[in-house]
Fold this protein.
Amino acid sequence: MLVEFRRRGYNANGCKCMAARRSKRMISEQEMRDLPANAWLKDPAKLANIQRSQEDFDWAMAHHAELEKQYIGQSVAICNKQIVAHGKTEEEVLRHAEAAGISLDHLVVFEFPDFFEMPCDWVDTKIHRDVRSETEAGIAP
């Protein structure tokens, strides 16, 4: 019954769903690819570049813990599942990679900070709470 109800344009609560309210029809995946904004989807070189970048990103995520230990406080550039450059700043890493003849379009860059960031309001609240507790307990800050 729920399936039939949804086919008529209602959701499980009996309200008209958005698809039923729309007067335009949904476009197919092929029609979506044919839109001018998606012309890059027809370029095999761009698709291969995106696929390679995704593989490099997946590799970096799979090895994140060991990379973080080795490159703490640095940025690294990854290309073809290899570290091709590393340095203190992203700009430095990009300069090294470019000097090595690697196209910046083929890089995945990761940063491994050497500090733990806490929101300022959390720190202020925690410090005030701790000082207040010590004061109330009779311990001088």
Remarks:
- Helices lie at 2-7, 18-21, 29-33, 44-62, 64-70, 90-99, 120-136.
- The first strand starts at residue 74 and ends at 79.
- The chain is about 50% helix and 10% strand.
